[in-house]
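Example 9 (inverse folding). The structure is encoded as follows.
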């Protein structure tokens, strides 16, 4: 039995050029080239005219004379990448970044709480578009190699699932250049032997592949062609924070509505802290305004906590302080993150801080009860009184708040 297709490969489409088109509406639908002397990125409109990454700038302009050439803005691309990877890590802790604009995600074991891998991938794509304003193509497969090929085949702005029983039918008709590691030189060697598809390469004996391409490359590529890729997804970043955010659209939001949404976000984060036996010291409020500009506000506690009520009180204070700017500029996204994490058993005893009872027995009991109810009946089984009768999309039974 081959197992389930649980590996996602997520790849942002024409990343640098897409950020430029996102931030400058006049560029949307037009051929865009990032970089003058050498093409760093090209929009799909420019690619359709023959422009390619790493092409000489003069050649690119000859291929597409009406292209808009813009200088790179690396800080903007880095900021967009950080926002996308935050969504990746909010989806699963098993994220292996390959570059600024692509990553593998392992979602095995999440079916019960998050749905099938295809459903998870669809939500991931929707979140990246809604919260960051970018399109991401996703391939889903049993192995990393097949997931990466699937995402490339699905571009632009696509989702493709390769089920285990369909792997050979999907991979073998593709050009041999689709094998991860086959560049122009290797492809030329294979073409000279009459090998043009992955299936034709797979029909070779392993010894022949090694003789033509060298032992290491031949062994590796031949294994991929025969659907063997045992490499697991390896998380490439130690999680130093946890966060969650919600896209709001462009409709005006009242302070009460934002308070309800922020409460729901903090509730989820508090539960995740306790599930992992962690405490945090820094609470950060993240906002995106209607013009796509972003802002963050944070506060660091003297004593770490895992108490939802403490975190919510801090987050509420940050939101209150930002309301004047929110009212003036409009807000399209709100989020929160908790950082400076530590193991709960390594934290000192919580004491009263700025009027907040950090270790109140009633508050700790309330968190425990709510966690237990949600564990048994689902995440939406219970909420806090602040959500009652207020527009945050909440319809579950409400437990009284601890004040």
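The amino acid assigned to each position is listed next.
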């Amino acid at each position: 039995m081959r197992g389930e297709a649980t590996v996602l490969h997520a790849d942002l489409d024409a990343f640098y050029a897409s950020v430029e088109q996102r931030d400058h509406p006049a560029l949307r639908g037009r051929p865009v080239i990032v970089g003058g002397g050498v093409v760093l990125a090209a929009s799909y409109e420019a690619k359709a005219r023959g422009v390619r990454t790493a092409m000489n700038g003069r050649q690119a302009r000859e291929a597409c004379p009406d292209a808009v050439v813009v200088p790179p803005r690396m800080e903007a691309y880095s900021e967009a990448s950080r926002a996308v990877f935050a969504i990746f890590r909010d989806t699963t802790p098993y994220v292996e970044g390959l570059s600024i604009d692509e990553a593998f995600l392992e979602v095995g074991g999440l079916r019960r709480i998050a749905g099938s891998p295809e459903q998870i991938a669809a939500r991931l794509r929707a979140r990246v578009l809604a919260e960051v304003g970018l399109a991401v193509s996703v391939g889903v497969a049993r192995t990393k190699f097949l997931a990466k090929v699937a995402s490339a085949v699905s571009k632009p702005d696509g989702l493709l699932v390769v089920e285990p029983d369909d792997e050979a039918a999907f991979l073998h008709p593709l050009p041999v250049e689709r094998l991860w590691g086959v560049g122009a030189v290797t492809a030329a060697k294979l073409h000279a032997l009459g090998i043009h598809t992955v299936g034709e390469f797979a029909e070779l004996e392993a010894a022949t592949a090694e003789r033509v391409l060298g032992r290491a490359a031949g062994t590796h590529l031949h294994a991929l062609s025969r659907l063997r890729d045992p490499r697991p997804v390896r998380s490439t970043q130690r999680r130093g924070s946890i966060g969650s955010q919600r896209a709001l659209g462009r409709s005006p939001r009242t302070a009460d509505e934002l308070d309800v949404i922020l409460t729901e976000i903090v509730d989820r984060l508090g539960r995740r802290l306790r599930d992992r036996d962690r405490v945090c010291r820094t609470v950060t409020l993240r906002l995106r305004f209607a013009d796509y500009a972003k802002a963050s506000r944070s506060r660091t506690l003297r004593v770490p906590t895992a108490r939802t009520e403490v975190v919510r009180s801090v987050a509420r204070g940050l939101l209150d302080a930002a309301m004047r700017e929110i009212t003036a500029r409009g807000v399209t996204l709100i989020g929160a993150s908790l950082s400076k994490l530590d193991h709960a058993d390594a934290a000192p005893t919580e004491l009263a801080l700025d009027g907040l009872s950090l270790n109140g027995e009633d508050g700790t009991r309330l968190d425990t009860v709510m966690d237990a109810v949600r564990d048994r009946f689902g995440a939406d089984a219970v909420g806090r009184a602040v959500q009652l009768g207020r527009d945050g999309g909440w319809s579950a039974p409400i437990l009284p708040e601890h004040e």
